[in-house]
Amino acid sequence: MWLEKRPQVHIADNISEDSFESFLLAKELEEADEKALSIVRRNRWVIKYFSCGTLWGSTFLALLLLIGVVLSIIRSIWGIEDDPDSIFINWGKPGTETEDLAWYPTDFLRDVMPIPCHSHNDYWRRVPLYSALHAGCTGVEADVWLFDNSSQLFVGHDRAALTPHRTFQSLYVNPIVELISQNNPETPFYNESEALRGVFDTDPEQTLVLLVDMKTDGAKTFPQVQAQLEPLRARNWLTYVEDGVVHKRHVTVIGTGRTPFDLLMQNSTYRDIFFDAPLNELYEDPDAPEMEEVDEGPFVYNSTNSWYASVNFFRTIGSVWTHLSEEQLQLIRGQIRGAHRRGLKVRYWNTPAWPISLRNRIWHTLMAEGADILNVDDLKSATKKRW
User: Fold this and answer.
1) 309 strand-pairing partners
2) Quick check: pTM over 0.70?
3) Crossing angle, helix 356-369 and helix 17-78, to 10 degrees?
């Protein structure tokens, strides 16, 4: 029958007994060849896999590097930098001893290099005074308010920002005393009278400028500022003028805002608060021949009564769209010349803040023309010195 199952015939059934051993040997060789071929194929696949993996890995690393470069360029263009205030992340939190007053480890300024920048509206920083010093600023600014029912000087931009704990003493005077005390320890190996050591370890002779912007009536506020500086005065840490000679010390106090110049000048033999002279009134023709002070008599504002000579950039120099015009440059040069001839340091405030490229260009031009201090709000960008 066609449905009948046929017996299965194997090749080995047709081989004689004498040839069977040869057949087995050939069979083993054939199987060995198959195994070898299989191993070769597997090895090729592994090599191909790892080759592709290496290629993809290299591509991935190159992509990460490219992304890093792009982000770095973006950060540079837009002025985004690592936050130097990150060390103050726990400031003000319960249990840190910073709830109301200032505190910080003694060595946070040990490797900070001071640069000529002034922390404008310093009380806006995450930590007033300390943030500016940690960034390297050699000047800080405090707006102070005095009210009839209090002897305290409160610090803030306006009345709505004032709080009982944020005072001139708690935010500035007391912390400065602590910092300078730490830099001038009483030990058998050191005598403070032998050297001047200010707040910066890397430059102990650098004075710290404390600009006090008096927001309330100057005649009432000025005496209170004088009184609250006593902890610094008693330690001989304030820059002072005596009999017409300037003695530079650890801290230089400058009065601005409603500071009364006539009241500041009352003591003709000694003073330790200097004036912020009006830079716009000191213009001298930058192209005129050099003149001696004796040709015009003594100056009203000079190094014995003033320290800074400042002005509102926008109001005095005007708007800048791409670059300073020749007329604006001449005005700046004339103001700087007049201030320097009186022994004063030039400071422009309210300079353009945006775009970043224009701001940096203005900063660079001002310093190149002879300005002495940058008045800044963006500490991170200013202290990177990319201008």
Assistant:
1) 277, 346
2) yes
3) 60
